[in-house]
Amino acid sequence: MSELHDPNAPQATSDLSNTGRMDVSAVLDEGRASVPDSIREVVFNLDDVHIFYGDFEAVSDVTMQIGKNEITAFIGPSGCGKSTLLRSFNRMNDLIPGARVEGLLAYHGFNIYAPEVDPIEVRRRIGMVFQKPNVFPKSIYENVAYGPKVNGMKVNMDDLVEDCLTRAALWDEVKDDLKKSAYALSGGQQQRLVIARCIAVKPEVILMDEPCASLDPIATAKIEDLMKELAADYTIVIVTHNMQQAARVSDRTAFFTADVDAKGVRHGRLVEYGPTRSIFTAPNEPRTEDYISGRFG
Fold first, then answer.
1. 31, 105, 186, 192: which has the fewest Cβ within 10 Å?
2. Are the C-beta atoms of 252 and 274 separated by less than 8 Å?
3. What would you report as the CA-atom Rg of the chain, rounded to the nearest whole angstrom?
4. Nearest CA-CA partner of 273 in 244, 253, 243
C-alpha cells in the first residue's frame, strides 16, 4: 500500500547546492495552498485500485483521495501508469479491449465501475483534455456548441459559446472569427478551445493529460493561468512531466514510479501523495527525493 504524506511533516528548504533537489522555492511561493484534510470535500476516493490490460497489471495498489476544487498533479517517469490511472477516472480505458479496473474508484461515494453506471454520463461529468489539441473539423463556434447539442441541453447557444470561450480566456481573440475553422487557430488557442468545449457540457471535473506538452512557453503560461482560474469551479487532475509546472499550479502532488517484478515486468505504483509544497521540499520517501533531485527519471 502506498504511503500517504504527512502534511504536518517539517518542511526543509529547497537548496539545490546542498541537496541536489530542484530549486522550486520561488515557484512554490507563487503556487496554490492546499486545503487542510479536515475540511476537504472528497470528490474521488480510490481504495486499492489495480488496472489491467488483459493479464498485464499496468497500475498496482493505488489508494488516494482527491478533493473538490483542487488541482492534483500526477508526476513520475514515463511508463509508470500516470495516464492510465487518469483515464480510469472517467472510464476512457473502457474503450481499450481487455482493460479492467479492480478495487474501488468512487466518485462522490458512488463506484463508477458499478454495472448500473452509464460510462457516457461519467464522461459528461468528468471531462478530458488530451496532450495534443483534438479540435473538431468544424468552426470555432460549432466546436463549443457540439457537446451541448448532442446532449440536448436547452440553453441559449450563443450565450453559452461566449461564456465558455470567455472562461477559457479565448473570447477576445476569436469573437470576430467564430465561423472560422478551428484548424486556423494556433496550438495554444486550439488547446484553450478544447477546454472551452469541455466545460460547455458543464462537467464537475476536468482531467488533463499533459495539456502543455506540445505548446510553447507563452501558450503554456496561459494554460497554467487558466487552470488556476478554473479551479474555483472545477476539480482538476493533471498529468505532467514538468515538475516546475506541478509546483506552480497544483495543490497536491502524487508521485508514481514503476516497480519491476521477479519476471522483469514493470508495474506502475503510487509512491507518495500529499500537499505539493511538502512533496517538493520534504518528501517522506527516498524515491520521491531521488526523482525530484533528478537522480532518475
1. 186
2. yes
3. 19
4. 253
